[in-house]
Amino acid sequence: MWLRILQRYNxxxxxxxxxxRSLQSRWDIIKAEVGKFSSFYADVIRENPxxxxxADKTTHAAANFAGILKHNFAYLHYWEIMKDxxxxxxPKPRAFAKSAGGDGFGEDTINLGDDNSSPTGSAxxxxxxxxxxxAAKKKANSSMGSASFSEYASRMQDLYLQxxxxxxxxxVRKNDRFQQLAFIDEKRFExxxxxxxxxxLIKQEKIRIMREKHDMDKEEKEKREDEISLGxxxxxxxxxxxxxxxxxRKKFSKRLQLGAGRDRAPEPWMGEETFFFxxxxxxxxxxxxxxxxxxxxxxxxxxxxxxxxSWNYYLLTVICSVIIS
Length: 325
What we know:
Layout: H1 2-10, H2 20-47, H3 54-69, H4 76-82, H5 91-101, H6 130-140, H7 142-260, H8 272-276, H9 279-301, H10 309-324
Helix pairs in contact: 2-3, 2-4, 6-7, 7-9, 7-10, 9-10
């Protein structure tokens, strides 16, 4: 049958060709929508509002269809063709007509229209409608449906419990992962703090070493400067000492010569002339100067007057020179 329908459909030529499966799917959609609309149309027919034409009844049924099913009926042109078929007609008015025709008058009633009426009239059997088929199917599957529903509910409960278990496990894994990350961050922070403390200690140690080195360099520099100053002072002191010794010896020899040429030796209390030309006084001066010179040389060589040598030795040397002169 569907092959004949396919051939007739593809012979039109004005539309693209379809397959048998495509035509069957299209017919299933049309049949379902027309079946729903036929129930709304049957309700309008049973209400039989006064003064309403067939077109108005169709419009009223379409409005009820759109209001209840929330979408418009898009197959009115199919309905105009299919509404006269027995499958899409309401059986109740026909049953009412059949029962009305058989009441009260018996078999002697003569129907004037028998000659022109169709022989199939009331004997024609209407095929099972959509609602009847659904009711029969529902009744046949009622016992199976309850068992299937129980099994479905049990499976849904199992799936729900599995989902809850999976979510709990995922939450535990996330919590463990978060704790691991927190521990890693804390450990990394401790390592960074320890590293920074180590760097700070190293920096402080470098500063301390540099400071000690600077202090040592400063002390070494001051020590070298003191040694250089001491060397220069000692050199000058030795030169002055040699010069004073030579000068003293020259003066001493001259005074000895002058003292030997006089008749009487001068006395220490007899004034300036006696003082300068007295051999005894000159000898005492010589002893004092030699003693002072020995003491000064000893102190310099022992580094006992390093801080006071710069001026004391010069002052002592000048005093000795004045005394000798």
